[in-house]
Amino acid sequence: MSFMNFNKSTEYAFRILGFLALDERKIYSTDEIYNKVKIPYRYLRKQLTNLTKKGLINSVQGKHGGYRLTKKKSEISLYDIVVCMEDGVLSNECFFGYTDCHLIEKCAMHDKWEEISSSLNNLLKTMNLADITRKEYPAFF
Amino acid sequence: MSFMNFNKSTEYAFRILGFLALDERKIYSTDEIYNKVKIPYRYLRKQLTNLTKKGLINSVQGKHGGYRLTKKKSEISLYDIVVCMEDGVLSNECFFGYTDCHLIEKCAMHDKWEEISSSLNNLLKTMNLADITRKEYPAFF
DNA sequence: AGAAAATAATACCTCTGGGTGTCATTTATG
DNA sequence: CATAAATGACACCCAGAGGTATTATTTTCT
User: Fold this and answer.
1) Which phi and psi (to 5°) does residue A57 adopt?
2) How far: B5 CA to C7 C1' (Å)?
3) Which of B15, B91, B98 comes nearest A96 by C-beta?
4) Does residue B137 form part of some domain?
5) How distant, in Å, are the alpha carbons of A8, A116, B57, B82, B93 from that of A4?
6) How many domains does chain A have?
7) H/E stretch holding B46
């Protein structure tokens, strides 16, 4: 049970990119992706072209087309993905939702909140697509 | 810079309840609250009756009416507030947004994600309204 | 009793995230 | 060169969060 969560589209990006990372050379069609990653078909289509525009994946058009990671899986951190997907969401707000918290004195939550959110940031920066597709772990789709 | 944040209405609840905690006996009118807590006036009104319905505050109607905490400030944890406000948001989803993650084997993110989200939970359970209004800290409004 | 000062109720507006549907374009191949 | 198999581009829908506006209701005070 948690209060933390990302946007659906960010979660979807994790799944999609994680799946593509299984074979970073291969070109996967939407249908192949669809069968593994549980995302509504139309929305998956949309997300795939989004990810392409954002530069996280390359698309190959035409027959036998599909998608593939733009970089090596070990070079794409979860942090990169989140930053890319949550552009607007990424906030400078403090615990109470104020934007100028750092300007005035620190509130009672400041340090503790900072600590947790920076350990989250670290986790995201540390983990990359190679890490989450290691064989020790079950495929997450 | 953080990816974590609560709903606006939860943040507003923190502010409002934190303000009321300054004097847990006193009945504060909407106007008094409005001048300190930066929340759009009409929306503040709405939130105040919401908080009343949810049982976090008591309202006193009529002239000289207003609002007051239902419990002692030391008895209301931030966790209580979040649970109360984010009823629908509180999720059982894993890092990748799957709901049945715990049924199958653990994914690569499971433990680390769990660790961070439980340290957040702990923080929220530990801190109460008395804590965030301690004099060492500046008023956060 | 009636005015004033407060909250309660209700209805509406707007924007965005998530999701769907249709048609256009690109490319491999028989 | 035509067709099939893929992605791209739009355009729309829906629900919920955040916010606004108006009209009731409750209570105090003179």
Assistant:
1) -130, 160
2) 30
3) B15
4) no
5) 12, 11, 26, 12, 9
6) 1
7) helix B41-53
What CATH number does the domain containing B65 carry?
1.10.10.10
In a domain, B64, yes or no: yes
Output DSSP code: residue B104: S
From A18, A89, A112, residue closest to B123, measured CB to CB:
A112
Domain that holds residue B110: 8-132
A78-91, pLDDT tens digit by residue?
Answer: 999 999 999 777 78
Res A30 pLDDT > 90: yes
Residue B103 covered by a domain: yes
pLDDT of residue B57: 98
Please give the full DSSP string across A1-40, using - where no structure is assigned. -BS----HHHHHHHHHHHHHGGGSSSPBPHHHHHHHS---
B87 domain residue, yes or no:
yes
Pair of tokens at residue B5: 């944040």
Distance CA A105, CA B130 (A): 18
